[in-house]
Amino acid sequence: MSNNKLERDGKMSKIPIREGLFTGKTEGKLVGFKCKACGHILPPLTLTCLNCYSNDLEGMPLSGKGKLYSYTTNYMDSGHIKAPFTGGMVELAEGFWIYSVLKEKAGKPFEINMEMELVVEKLWDKDDDEIIGYKFQPV
Fold first, then answer.
1. Can you tell me the distance from the alpha carbon of 127 to that of 88, in angstroms, rounded to the nearest whole number?
2. Rounded-to-integer distance, Cα 6 and Cα 129, Å
3. Which structural domain, as residue segments, surrounds residue 113?
4. Are 72 and 86 in contact (CB under 8 A)?
5. pTM: predicted TM-score of the whole model, two decimal places
6. Would you say 87 and 99 are in contact if contact means Cβ atoms under 8 Å apart?
7. Torsion angle defined by CA atoms of residues 116, 122, 125 and 131, in that order, rounded to the nearest 10 degrees
8. Distance in angstroms (rounded) separating the CA atoms of residues 36 and 134
9. Sheet of 41-42: strands edge to edge?
10. Count of domains forming the chain
11. Per-residue pLDDT of the chain (139 residues; tens, 9 = 90+)
């Protein structure tokens, strides 16, 4: 690639897929929320408590651990993610499901109820940037 930014510093910038999604800018744990009114723990990017409808939420790091609830292999591109790729629902230790692209791990084929862990890494390149997001992989 020959663009000015790459020629200048030799590497691409890392940009999170959404601001505030991780405890660090492009690394760390997923940030969920805890409702101050009822204590319910909620997924990332939640604006209102799904239990009591309060908007009084505080950010909290999520464990990044869960179990694979369901999965499918996609044979068509999905936006920036090129086929084939596997996506699935992971039930996090905090008690809710989250959809994620799944990352393969050698010697561990996907199985329902298998233990999964969070991986924060590049999802795709956009212009001069690496777009960073989350995936789950077998433990």
1. 28
2. 10
3. 4-138
4. yes
5. 0.85
6. yes
7. 100
8. 26
9. 41-42, 31-35, 57-61
10. 1
11. 434 344 345 678 999 999 999 999 889 999 999 999 999 999 999 999 999 999 999 999 999 999 999 999 999 998 899 999 999 999 999 999 999 999 999 999 999 999 999 999 999 999 989 999 999 999 9
